[in-house]
Design goal:
heterodimer; A: alpha+beta; seven-stranded antiparallel sheet; three-stranded antiparallel sheet; 3 helices; 10 strands; B: alpha+beta; eight-stranded antiparallel β-barrel; 6 helices; 11 strands
């Protein structure tokens, strides 16, 4: 019995090594990223875990992730170094939702640069809103689909523009409602 | 004085003289040994039984009694018999004089009686041989004799152990000598082969290894220090490798630590080629999203290289190979280059 377990362990390790990287190409910038898929295939995005972790507010249809929580009470707000969330709004159009978010950050005291066009990593066109606060920056992108609008928001505390953040933001893509069926 | 009276006086005088001589001769010819208490004639200088010097220690015997062998002839005997007896006694005297009591011959030993113990017999023998006239010598106390016996036994045991050690070493030497010639030749060939590998394969080598772990448009050049330790250096080569290097991705720098074990074959020569298969595990430290993150790395590959002897104790070992690197389910196929210096 012990001999069988030994040989089984040897086979497992052998397979691990033989299948070293049997998955995808490591030269892909998102090679080490995990992918979130909306249960209804409305949107998806790539995230790297670690350091990204699911927050308590996260749900299946409204994911919320944070990096380095230093205040559990306000982790969803200012209590973490980075925070992202994605959601869909079936009732609002893309411009309406973008305008609504623009006014939201404006009233919060942020310096909002306005609603500008945005293209993600796949070249899909949408809108973005950028808001800046001392030691705090917000980037939100919106894509239109038949069933409404999907939105992605990322807040970064105390950081300038980060290449990883830009790459993660650009990985947000709408699902079947945006015409992208191959998720 | 008349003639008759003169003759009578001369007769008395000669008779008294004869009697005097006879008596003197009879008494002066015997001596008793103080050790064995045996009577000998005066001519015997050394007691044949115990070697006692009778001229110094012998006691002249007053009694007229004599042993048969020491009887002298009477004055009235004819001269031939007297000369014959004198010759015999002289012969016997010479025999006794030159006869050593302590190296055999006609040594007369006092046989111990059955009731005498071995110690008493030894004491008597010692007395006779050591000319010890001290009759009052007594044997040592039993406790002293026991202690002396213990010491003697301990000494005997130590001597036996020493003899055993000598015999054991000699037996081992004999076994080695009895080793067959073929085994000796086999051992000699093995030593020559080991020496050959020792001369042509380094024990430890240190060098630089370069490979590629690209990301996006960046080639992901990874270079670092690698230390090899050759554990087994025969036709089969087994080595352990430690690598520490840096992966360059545009503005990001990832640190890589790898531990590999290699198994392969090698042929010793002035240029010793080798082929090694490597398996490894390691960790990559990367700063992503402003946070330090670690990822486990798995490697598998092979190397083809050559150990070139460039000095008495120096080796130069270039090699080229292929490595498959993997983190999670992502993999990199890369060519590796290495140049190392060995000792």
């Amino acid at each position: 019995m012990m001999l069988m377990r030994y040989f089984a362990r040897v086979r497992i390790w052998g397979l691990l090594f033989l299948c070293t990287g049997c998955g995808h190409d490591g030269t892909d910038p998102f090679a080490l990223f995990d992918t979130y898929h909306h249960p209804d295939n409305l949107f998806s995005f790539a995230y790297l875990s670690p350091p990204w972790m699911h927050h308590g507010e996260s749900s299946d249809v409204h994911p919320v992730m944070v990096v380095r929580v230093y205040d559990d009470l306000t982790a969803g707000g200012m209590g973490s170094r980075m925070r992202l969330e994605a959601w869909s709004d079936p009732e609002k159009a893309i411009r309406e939702l973008a305008a609504q978010r623009y006014l939201f950050w404006k009233r919060a005291g942020y310096q909002v640069s306005g609603v500008t066009p945005y293209a993600n990593y796949d070249g899909f066109q949408g809108l973005q809103v950028t808001a800046v606060y001392p030691h705090h920056r917000v980037r939100e992108v919106f894509f239109e689909c038949v069933e409404g609008t999907v939105a992605f928001s990322m807040r970064i505390h105390g950081e300038d523009r980060n290449e990883d953040s830009e790459m993660l933001l650009s990985s947000f893509r709408p699902g079947r409602c945006g015409g992208a069926d191959d998720l | 004085m008349t003639c008759e009276r003169r003759l009578r006086s001369e007769f008395l005088l000669w008779g008294m003289l004869a009697i005097l001589l006879w008596t003197t001769d009879l008494v002066a010819g015997q001596v008793r040994c103080p050790v064995c208490h045996q009577l000998f004639v005066r001519e015997v200088e050394v007691c044949p039984n115990d070697g006692t010097d009778l001229t110094l220690l012998g006691r002249r015997e007053e009694s007229e009694t004599a042993s048969d062998e020491t009887k002298t002839d009477t004055p009235g005997e004819p001269s031939e018999s007297r000369s014959a007896k004198t010759r015999d006694s002289a012969e016997e005297q010479a025999a006794r004089k030159y006869q050593r009591h302590d190296i055999g011959g006609a040594r007369k030993r006092v046989e111990p009686s059955p009731e005498d113990d071995f110690g008493e017999v030894e004491r008597r023998d010692r007395l006779r041989r050591l000319k010890d006239a001290r009759a009052g010598w007594t044997p040592p106390a039993p406790e002293a004799s026991v202690r002396s016996d213990d010491g003697r036994q301990r000494r005997q045991q130590e001597e036996l152990l020493a003899e055993y050690a000598v015999a054991r070493d000699q037996a081992a030497a004999d076994r080695n000598r009895r080793k067959s010639q073929s085994e000796i030749d086999k051992e000699r060939r093995r030593r020559e082969k080991d020496a050959l590998f020792r001369d042509h394969v380094p024990v430890i080598s240190m060098g630089n290894r370069v490979f590629f772990m690209g990301e996006g448009a960046s080639p992901g050049v990874t270079s670092g220090l690698e230390v090899d330790a050759n554990l087994i250096r025969t036709n089969v080569r087994v080595s352990m490798t430690s690598f520490v290097g840096v992966r360059h991705i545009e503005k990001r720098r990832d640190v890589l630590f790898l531990e590999n074990i290699a198994l392969g074959v090698q042929h010793p020569w002035h240029l010793s080629p080798y082929l090694l298969f490597r398996l490894g595990l390691g960790v990559m430290l990367s700063e992503r999203f402003g946070e330090q993150s670690s990822y486990m790395v798995r490697t598998i590959g092979f190397d083809i290289g050559m150990d070139c002897r460039v000095g008495r104790h120096l080796f130069l070992s270039p090699s080229v190979g292929y490595t498959r690197m993997a983190i999670y389910s992502a993999g990199w196929d890369t060519v590796t280059f290495k140049v190392s210096v060995g000792f």
